[in-house]
Amino acid sequence: MKMLLIILTSVATLLSAALFTTAAQESQTPAPMAVDTAKGLPEWDMIYAVFSHPRCADCHVADDRPRWSGAHYGGTRVHAFNVRRGADGSGFGNPGLRCTTCHFASNSSALHGPPGAENWRLAPAEMVWFGKSSAEICAQIKDRNRNGDRSLEDVALHVRDDKLVAWGWAPGADREPAPGSAEATYQAIENWMAAGAPCP
Ligand code: HEC
Ligand code: HEC
């Protein structure tokens, strides 16, 4: 009987210790960031203007065909030459017609010659922006299951530092560049995050 009492007492002590720890941990978790839509949405609009721009969205498509769109192409259509994502899903195209057959590390200087940047390829299909609304693109960017498992800070750094992204502001041969700059878009993402990253 005495033994049982001792066991019961120690179980109770352990339990209350466990409860106490949980409570202490909970009180240490920071409160969720306040969302300031008045500050955040204008920042998002700048980000959206870039991501939805043809120089970005033409590589971020849901199907397996890059797009040609904007004034330089005289409208919107699928990439000529029956170019595809590639049966292996890599985005580098099918064997025999790889992107790098035509797209090199830098832009062709010829008007309507192939533009270029290192590792030219289609973005994975889940990172789709072409034909998507502002709200849809916003949801995609924030979804780690669809953005290459990135935090928003990682997304911002990708925009600031990636070579394919940089091409969008130096697209060569008469193509209109994406609005602003890589640095300004990076800053807009930082400001948007600081405002709680609201979506429209
Ligand atoms: C030549 C094709 C190409 C162009 C042009 C391009 N991208 Fe991408 N993009 C990719 C590929 C490929 C990935 C996947 C890379 C990875 O996950 O590491 C990607 C991934 C991304 C990601 C991370 C994933 C996500 O959904 O958040 C961001 C952000 C991004 N691109 C922004 C841009 C912006 C902004 C532009 C235009 C200024 C642009 N991209 C133009 C091919 C392209
Ligand atoms: C047979 C050659 C060839 C192949 C292969 C090829 N491209 Fe192109 N691509 C071109 C040419 C030429 C242009 C420029 C056309 C123009 O300026 O009128 C171009 C332009 C582009 C553009 C620019 C669109 C814009 O918004 O300005 C993208 C994006 C693109 N290609 C993606 C790809 C991807 C991704 C692959 C591989 C899956 C690929 N291309 C394979 C020849 C090719």
Automatic annotation (TrEMBL):
What InterPro entries does this protein map onto?
Multihaem_cyt_sf
The protein's matches in SUPFAM superfamilies, at most eight in alphabetical order, are given as: Multiheme cytochromes
Give the keywords, sorted. Signal
**Region forming the signal peptide:** 1-23
Query: What is the protein name given in its UniProt record?
Result: Cytochrome c domain-containing protein
Q: Which organism is it from?
A: Mesorhizobium caraganae
Q: What is the lineage of its organism?
A: Bacteria, Pseudomonadati, Pseudomonadota, Alphaproteobacteria, Hyphomicrobiales
